[in-house]
Amino acid sequence: MVVFFQFSLFLMIGAMLYVFYRIYPPAAAFTRTDTIFPVFIVSHMPHGVSGLLIAAILAAAMSNLSAALNSLSSTSMVDFYIRLRPLTSEIRRIWLSRAAMVVWALVLFGLALLARHGGRVIEVGLTIASIAYGGMLGVFLLGVLTRRPRRAGHDGHDLRTGAELYLWLFTSVAFTWYVVLGSVATFAVGYAASLALGQKGIGNASA
């Protein structure tokens, strides 16, 4: 419900900006839709309010970025490097984790530049997230609603990933359908694979 309210607020702001610029057209046409809201904040809001909004946007961006960099650096060290070299000293681990954070920052910066040329940044981000969320939801439903082995969900998950990448890159299907299509494909293929293999599961969550 919180996410629904949040996205409703975002969509309402977008609709209001659309109406505003239809009534008061800008001096120069917008070349990118991502610039509409920042331009409105700077051009049409009081200086104090616009300063607070810009500060809030920067604070939110810094918070999300720091959390992402911390997670990526930790995953790189714990799940990969330390598994390969468990005897590494603590001091070397700290320096390597900092280096990994710098590398991931450069990677994210490059992805941001690519996203600017690939369409609207928010839609690109939500598209990438939807490709992952559909499989996660399908595997979750397969594990909770059926008594078939959870390993079969990986079959549907792999096929679903390929299908959604095809939809994203080679079709005009809107990204808002990716979660629905991905979860249905994962559940259907995973359940069908478990039936075809004739395996019996160990039970669902209640077991």
Question: How do the helices and strands follow one another from N- to C-terminus?
Answer: HHHHHHH
How many DSSP E strands? 0
- The CA-CA distance between the termini, in Å, is 30 Å
Which structural class matches the secondary elements? mainly alpha
- Report strand %: under 5%
Q: Strand count, sense and closure of the main sheet?
A: none
Mean pLDDT: 81
Radius of gyration equals 23 Å
Helix content estimate: over 70%
Overall 3D geometry? flat
Put simply, the count of helices is 7
Instruction: Indicate the low-confidence ranges by residue numbers.
Output: 200-207
Indicate the topology.
Elements: H1 2-23, H2 36-44, H3 47-84, H4 90-117, H5 121-145, H6 152-170, H7 178-197
Helix pairs in contact: 3-4, 5-6, 5-7, 6-7
Structure description:
By secondary structure, this protein is mainly α. The chain is 78% helix and 0% strand. The chain contains seven helices and no strands. Helix 6 runs antiparallel to helix 7. The longest helix has 38 residues, at 47-84. It is flat and about 65 Å long. The two termini are 30 Å apart.
